[in-house]
């Protein structure tokens, strides 16, 4: 949907809302509409999970190569940095290397209490492949102050909670 108005609408900008586009026929915007049918007790939770999966779709990339075997011999074609899946309530918001031995991560429990009141637990030491977590600190949301030094790498997040952690790591 795209609004087009050939005359000033009188709402203060003193000009028509006319964007003719490259071909002069007006802008054409294409999108998708999703319809989710679910019982009211489940609709909010399903809506949020669907929104995350639609927003975080895989990025398709392409390359010119003579054969699939040729490409496979020259590049890594399959890899996952995730050792174990996060609980379904959690989303990895931030994964930022600070230096060779420090990684900043930010996790969010993206459901509201009325959608899923489950407290989500995750072991920070068992999220990533090829990384050993030596120690972890919880930081404030902006990652500017230490809230606490963790004695255990297992952390819990309540509904709608976002937590930031600084991990001291080494590659394995």
Topology of this protein?
Layout: H1 40-55, H2 68-74, E1 90-99, E2 102-109, E3 120-123, E4 131-139, E5 146-149, E6 154-157, E7 162-171
Written description of the protein model:
This protein has 172 residues and is α+β, with helices and mostly antiparallel strands. The chain has a domain at 90-171: Immunoglobulin-like (Sandwich). 13% of the residues lie in helices and 28% in strands. The protein contains 2 helices and 7 strands, in the order H-H-E-E-E-E-E-E-E. The protein has a 5-stranded antiparallel β-sheet with strand order 1-2-7-4-5, with no helix packed on it. Strands 3-6 form a two-stranded antiparallel ribbon. A hairpin with a 2-residue loop joins strand 1 and strand 2. The longest helix is centred in the N-terminal third of the chain and has 16 residues, at 40-55.
């Amino acid at each position: 949907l795209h609004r087009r108005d050939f005359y000033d609408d009188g709402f203060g900008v003193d000009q028509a809302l006319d964007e003719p586009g490259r071909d002069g026929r007006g802008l054409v915007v294409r999108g998708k509409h999703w319809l989710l049918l679910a019982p009211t007790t489940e609709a909010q939770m399903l809506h949020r999970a669907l929104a995350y999966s639609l927003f975080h779709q895989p990025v398709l990339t392409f390359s010119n190569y003579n054969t699939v075997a040729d490409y496979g011999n020259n590049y890594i074609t399959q890899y996952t940095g995730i050792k174990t899946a996060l609980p379904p309530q959690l989303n990895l918001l931030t994964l930022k290397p600070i230096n060779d031995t420090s990684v900043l991560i930010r996790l969010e429990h993206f459901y509201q209490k009325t959608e899923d009141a489950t407290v989500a637990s995750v072991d920070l030491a068992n999220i990533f492949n090829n990384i050993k977590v030596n120690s972890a600190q919880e930081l404030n949301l902006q990652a500017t102050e230490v809230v606490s030094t963790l004695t255990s790498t297992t952390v819990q997040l309540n509904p709608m909670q976002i937590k930031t952690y600084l991990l001291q790591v080494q590659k394995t």
